[in-house]
Write a structure and sequence with these properties.
about 600 residues, about 10% strand, four-stranded antiparallel sheet, single chain, 24 helices
Length: about 600
């Protein structure tokens, strides 16, 4: 078997951006061309200042300066025009590259997340995933669209300026450049704790995102149990953590950052150049007219560095975002085989199955179970016994850590993932709908189904009349929470989806657990239609709903402790019998009340 992604999980700190497998590989060419244009543009941007200096020198020193003035005037105008043109083209290239990269990364992340084991999502909050897919990709904007241009400009302009100024006077050039290493020291001091603070800020922002999603998703429970204050305090605490981290960073770096900005400001550079230049003129080391190029060109020399300093925080933020996006893309997909196999029959067999989420705590241990074609196998047991986990091994939401799960004669790991999901229809207790029309929600089971097939599936699921009673019928838009549909109606909608899928194996995970008695009969009828002639595995807490199953498996502590029909298990007076008696007594007590 091979992994969907061959990656080094040991080195997440170093992110390859422009390499063959780099994050920015898809737009690398445009970024390099944009940086090249910015480099040339910054050099050409020096020409207008040189032209002014040379025109001034000609006017002051030449008897007939007309020709020199016109020549340098043309050079200055041409340089400014070319600089502007190249700058615009370079910016367009990198900004279009940024837009394409955002689309490419979001699509790639979405496709990759569809192949990642479901267990990975249980470790991540909704807010954290939202940050990667949305916020982090937005944060890459500065790194993609601006950082390369700024860096090229910070290299090109000083190089061209140094060449020109050295030709005028090398000693004054050294004085002009002396401010750069001094400002570099203050910038380094300002950003000494930036990596630590950026990590704290990122963690705080994740906490805010998670608290926000939890507040919105749980608003019904929050209001019902008057937990508004508690939920708000959790959100407020996350905001406070963010503000505290930001304030600490600002306090640590503020003075050094202010000093660096002051040193690189045009006023500070002008004072240094004029002061040193006046002394050199007085000493006879420099002609007065030779000071003019340093005043005009030298004052603008720190400008590219100012741009880099101002973008440092955005650059750090983008670097952290790039690392987080890369880490998600590094998550290995479920392994696949080079030559997938297709089973010839539809029974399900668990052989010596072990499973652990974390590698330490066993959730399932040595589970042996055969579910014959067309049979109904009910899985019962106390909460946490591994019922749902066992069922979700069939469609490979997780992979076993020991043993095998087979459909027919084929290990599920040897079946192509898309084919496996077509073979297995799953109806969960937690109903999942997408923000689309009812018609399209049902059609998810078979994307190429026509309207007649969709309606037939809805009729079989006992939901057609409910849909037709809505003002827009099948074109009614529902949300993830169902919108205009009740809990039982939403459940029947997912059953219609599974009926349309027409899979030979059906998994029901507490499909009626949250349905009220009024809707339960309709849901049971829909389930009867869905499971007719198929291999069925069902997890249930309401034991009366599975009393007629071909076999009932009792899990406890991740092991099968009992197995048989309802009558056989009742006669053994074991765990199942006690569970049945407890539910029977509960129902009698409720009936008396």
């Amino acid at each position: 078997m091979r992994s969907g992604r061959d990656v080094d999980r040991k080195s997440p700190t170093k992110v390859d951006l422009l390499g063959r497998d780099g994050l920015f590989h898809a737009v690398r060419g445009r970024l390099l061309v944009g940086a090249g244009l910015s480099l040339v543009s910054s050099m050409l941007g020096l020409l207008p200042y040189v032209a002014v200096a040379e025109i001034a020198a000609a006017l002051l020193t030449e008897a007939e300066p007309r020709r020199a003035v016109l020549t340098w005037l043309v050079v200055g105008v041409a340089g400014a025009a070319c600089r502007l043109g190249l700058l615009v083209v370079g910016n367009l290239l990198t900004h279009y590259a940024d837009a394409d990269l955002q689309r490419h990364l979001r699509a790639g992340l979405t496709r990759h997340l569809a192949t990642v084991p479901l267990g990975w999502f249980s470790k991540k909050g909704s807010g954290e995933l939202k940050k990667v897919l949305d916020d982090d990709i937005d944060d890459l904007h500065h790194l993609v669209a601006h950082a390369g241009l700024d860096m090229a400009s910070a290299i090109g302009l000083p190089l061209a300026a140094i060449v020109y100024l050295v030709a005028v006077d090398w000693r004054m050039t050294l004085v002009t450049l002396a401010i750069l290493p001094l400002s570099a020291l203050t910038i380094r001091a300002a950003h000494r704790t930036m990596p630590i603070r950026m990590k704290q800020l990122t963690a705080a922002q994740q906490s805010i995102n998670n608290a926000t999603v939890e507040y919105v998703d749980g608003i019904q429970v929050i209001k019902a149990y008057r937990l508004t204050g508690t939920a708000w305090r959790r959100f407020s605490s996350s905001v406070d953590e963010f503000c505290d981290a930001l304030a600490a960073w600002t306090a640590e770096s503020g003075r050094a950052m202010f000093a660096s900005m002051a040193l690189l400001s045009p006023a500070a550079v002008l004072v240094i150049i004029v002061g040193a230049g006046t002394g050199m003129v007085s000493a006879g080391w420099l002609e007065p007219v030779e000071l003019l190029p340093f005043i005009l060109v030298g004052v603008g020399l720190p400008a590219p560095y100012m741009t880099l300093v101002q973008g440092t925080q955005l650059l750090r933020k983008a670097s952290v975002a790039a690392r987080r996006v890369s880490e998600v893309l590094r998550e290995p997909a479920l392994p696949t085989v080079d030559e997938p196999r297709t089973p010839s029959r539809w029974d399900v067999r668990f052989s010596a199955v072990d499973f652990s989420y974390d590698g330490d705590n066993q959730v399932l241990q040595q589970v042996d179970l055969h579910c014959p074609v067309g049979s109904v196998t009910a899985i019962v047991g106390p909460s946490g016994s591994g019922k749902t986990t066992l069922m979700r091994l069939v469609p490979r939401f997780f992979d076993v850590t020991g043993g095998t799960v087979r459909i027919g004669e084929v290990d599920v790991r040897e079946i192509a993932p898309n084919e496996l999901l077509r073979m297995v229809a799953v109806v969960f207790q937690d109903v999942v709908l997408v923000r689309e029309t009812i018609r399209e929600n049902i059609r998810l089971g078979k994307p190429d189904a026509d309207d007649r097939e969709v309606e037939a599936a809805a009729r079989a699921a006992q939901i057609h009349e409910v849909i037709m009673a809505l003002p827009a019928g099948y074109d009614t838009v529902v949300t993830s929470r169902g919108g205009v549909l009740s809990g039982g109606e939403r459940q029947r909608l997912t059953i219609a989806r599974a009926i349309l899928q027409d899979a030979p194996i059906v998994l029901l995970d507490e499909a009626t657990a949250s349905v009220d008695p009024e809707n339960e009969a309709a849901v049971q009828q829909a389930l009867a239609e869905l499971t007719r002639g198929r291999t069925l595995l069902v997890v249930a807490h309401r034991l009366h709903t599975i009393a007629r199953a071909n076999q009932i498996v009792v899990l406890d502590g991740g092991r099968i402790v009992e197995q048989g029909t309802h009558d056989e298990l009742i006669s053994r007076a074991g765990k199942y019998s006690r569970m049945w008696a407890a539910q029977y007594q509960l129902h009698r007590a409720e009936a008396v009340r």
